Amino acid sequence: MGAEWSIAVGFLVYFIAIIFAIVFYVIYRKFSLILYTASISTLIFSIFYAIDVFDFSRNLIMLTLVISTIAFFALGKYFQGVTYTKEN
Known about the structure:
By secondary structure, the chain is an all-alpha fold. It contains three helices and no strands. It has one domain.
């Protein structure tokens, strides 16, 4: 099984994400928007790659999307409450 098309789509997504990240940074001057854009493009690329390599059916594609969405929501909620303090 080849993954040629998913790699091409991945690079396309990365290039589009880089353009959006530059535009977001120029407009809003927030580095966090660049990180959000990079993480979303990485998620899209990894899902496309998994779909192509493992030859998922329609139901497995939806299951993969649902599981990754729940996982990222849970991680976001966890890291939202984590605070780091500098000890003297």
